[in-house]
Specification:
This protein is α/β, with parallel strands linked by helices and 536 residues long. Helix content is 25%, strand content 16%. Strand 8, helix 8 (277-280) and strand 9 (293-294) form a beta-alpha-beta unit. Bound molecules: 1-deoxynojirimycin.
């Protein structure tokens, strides 16, 4: 199963200099005409990804699942759902990726299973079942209701009553996603074996789902009210999740996951973590024995202003533990597309930022062609989050729509009506249309990734802030004998970026039209323009 690799790319740091690309398999490429993407579809598109220049593909879950949460409700950790294909298809995908010198990262969902997972079926069979303690059970509260005030991220109480046995089980997400009890060593051992199963099949790493949720308060204390909660926003944040997330003990669990990853050479552990930076960095582990990359989602939440972004970068850089490698994310399957957040013109600047910052970038499928957030008509809503907490913009379907490959009827995604609607602009915004266009969003991404690959200053060099003034954000990346200046105009008016005494040559503009231009002293930036300049 393991393929020979290019020895130049071997070594512990492939994920430091590399670019990660997230595929949401349901929406990438359908090959069997059911309107839902599959693993063979991912394999079919590997040449495209290789041409884009990415180093690793992260696949959201493809395991057998009733799809209550579209695969994040796993019914069998060591197989492939027939909707997505077979284990043989998975092996073929890994082999084909490795032949192209690309890595494969898979999603590990250890916090909860599906309610139809055999472990949960056993656990709920009786209070005395040996697997009862694999999940989190409590007697009803004094009034017969839930045992405490803990809330589900997906709305309502986090406790569901199992009528047959008269106890409540805890679910941080849907009631169809019961949480595993990580205080039980048998649970840890079982998940570690799941990891070994996939690592032995050749996967290059895991993105661990909601890793900061893995431990809950053993005393089941109520969560305190959140004094900053604003009505009309996500009701989960009515309480501060103090006793349900980010417990110190989670670090031991993460270290355990890391030990398993380290049993195999050159593998990567990524953690999904939504926490303020100062807490996020704890997930590198005290002795760098935690996640290699605790996902940094701060760009998704910071106001799109030069000063705010510079402040964020500085805070993050300062908070990193010695030897901890940074990373940046601009989009994923849970958050609105960057195109919606900053607008279509500014999305190019955002791409330049993501791909020139110090740290491993993760690119969400479709962002490289400028896919927009799609309005989903109420009758086509699929996301359980939107169904449970309607009307306040929690729905995630609009960021999960089919990849736009070409201008044909179903955008080259499928021969059948896709599971989610296509973006109305797919006849213009698609891979085929953008591939040969010298200044398309796709071309910009290909060139940014290529710059990163060919200039170690960009992939591994130091970061130095230069200016954050009005709409102008400038920073330098220095390394391997090169100094590279990145100048970004975050606004819709032209501006002049002062580079006193400096001289350089433009490597790339977000409009792909100034390569080779010599700049001296002040450099003019058009509205929504970013420049990468190699300083003399
Ligand atoms: C985080 C995943 O990214 C999200 O899609 C999912 O709904 C929750 N975890 C629950 O598994």
């Amino acid at each position: 199963m393991e393929q020979a690799r290019d020895p130049r790319r071997e070594g512990a740091s492939w994920w430091k200099s590399g670019v990660i690309y997230q595929v949401y398999p349901r929406s990438f490429q359908d090959t069997d005409g059911d309107g839902v993407g599959d693993l063979k579809g991912v394999t079919r598109r590997l040449d495209y990804l290789q041409g884009l220049g990415v180093d690793a593909v992260w696949l959201s879950p493809f395991y057998p699942s009733p799809m209550a949460d579209f695969g994040y409700d796993v019914a069998d950790y060591v197989d492939v759902d027939p909707l997505f294909g077979t284990l043989a298809d998975f092996d073929a995908l890994v082999a084909a990726a490795h032949e192209r010198d690309m890595r494969v990262i898979i999603d590990l969902v250890p916090n909860h299973t599906s309610d139809v997972h055999p472990w949960f079926a056993e656990a709920r069979a009786s209070r005395h079942n040996p697997k009862r303690d694999w999940y989190i059970w409590r007697d009803p509260g004094p009034d017969g209701g839930p045992p405490n005030n803990w809330l589900s991220e997906f709305g309502g109480s986090a406790w569901a009553l199992d009528e047959a046995t008269g106890q409540y089980y805890y679910h941080a997400f849907l009631d169809r996603q019961p949480d595993l009890n990580w205080r039980n060593p048998e649970v840890a051992a079982a998940i570690h074996d799941v990891m070994r199963f996939w690592l032995a099949r050749g996967v290059d790493g895991f993105r661990v789902d909601v890793i900061w949720h893995l431990m809950k308060d053993p005393h089941f204390r109520d969560n305190p009210p959140n004094p900053d909660y604003r009505a009309g926003t996500n009701p989960y944040f009515r309480l501060l999740p103090l006793h349900t997330t980010d417990l110190d003990e989670v670090q031991d669990v993460v270290a355990g996951l890391r030990r398993v990853v380290d049993e195999f050479p050159d593998r990567l552990l990524i953690g999904e973590i939504y926490l303020p930076i100062e807490r996020l960095v704890a997930y590198y582990g005290g002795a760098l024995d935690g996640a290699h990359l605790p996902f940094n989602f701060a760009l998704l939440e910071t106001p799109w202003q030069a000063r705010a972004i510079e402040h964020l970068i500085t805070r993050y850089e300062a908070a990193l533990p010695k030897g901890g490698w940074p990373n940046w994310v601009l989009g994923n399957h849970d958050r609105p597309r960057i195109h919606k957040r900053v607008g279509g013109d500014q999305a190019r600047v955002a791409a330049m930022l993501l791909l020139t910052l110090r740290g491993t970038p993760t690119l969400y499928y479709g962002d490289e062609i400028g896919m927009a957030q799609v309005e989903i008509p109420p009758e086509r809503v699929q996301d359980p989050y939107e169904k449970n907490v309607p009307g306040i913009g929690m729905g995630r379907d609009g960021v999960r729509t089919p990849m736009q490959w070409d201008g044909s009827r179903f955008a080259g995604f499928s021969d059948a009506e896709p599971w989610l609607p296509l973006a109305p602009d797919f006849t213009e915004v698609n891979v085929a249309a953008e591939m040969g266009d010298p200044d398309s969003m796709l071309t910009l991404h290909r060139r940014l990734i290529s710059l990163r690959r060919h200039h170690p200053a960009l992939s591994e060099g130091d970061y130095a802030p230069v200016a954050a003034d009005g709409d102008l954000l400038m920073f330098r990346r220095d390394g391997a004998g090169e100094r590279i200046l990145v100048a970004l105009n975050l606004g819709g008016d032209p501006l002049l970026a002062a580079m006193p005494g400096a001289r350089g040559r433009v490597l790339l503009s977000t409009f792909c039209d100034r390569e080779g231009e010599t700049v001296t002293g002040d450099v003019g930036l058009r509205a929504h323009e970013g420049l990468v300049v190699r300083l003399d």
